[in-house]
Amino acid sequence: MKAGLEPGKHAEIEITVTPAMCPHFDGELVHPLFSTWETVHYMEMAGRKVLAPHLDDDEEALGAHITLDHKSPALIGARVVVRAEIESLHGQRLTCRVTAKSDGRLLATGRFVQIIMPKSRVAALLDRHAP
After folding, report:
1. Which domain range does residue 67 map to?
2. Tens-digit pLDDT string for the chain (131 aa)
3. Cα–Cα distance between 96 and 118 in angstroms, integer?
4. Is 1 contained in some domain?
5. 48, 52, 68, 113: which sits with the fewest CB atoms below 10 Å from its CB?
């Protein structure tokens, strides 16, 4: 692993909420709001963005845990900034605090954990669980 994965390092992703990012069940729009699953998706992307530049060529990471607590909704058209900030690195376990905000208003908070491992171990895991 390359140097620099230290508490406080962060990455952000900016998006605009579209109808496709809202909850749809059985093909029907339920609420015109930024969905939980899209929020999680962008929190994982921001966490990956923090980590990726520090992985060696023979390393990969897998998501191990994520939490999300909603605080406020974001409507279609809202600009959302999703941020991941390193909280800790213990061995190969990277934990980031993740937030989503819109115009300074807190939408969601949580934590995202990634486990860093050799690519060969990832390949072995995939092989072991292949159909």
Report:
1. 10-129
2. 999 999 999 999 999 999 999 999 999 999 999 999 999 999 999 999 999 999 999 999 999 999 999 999 999 999 999 999 999 999 999 999 999 999 999 999 999 999 999 999 999 999 998 88
3. 20
4. no
5. 52
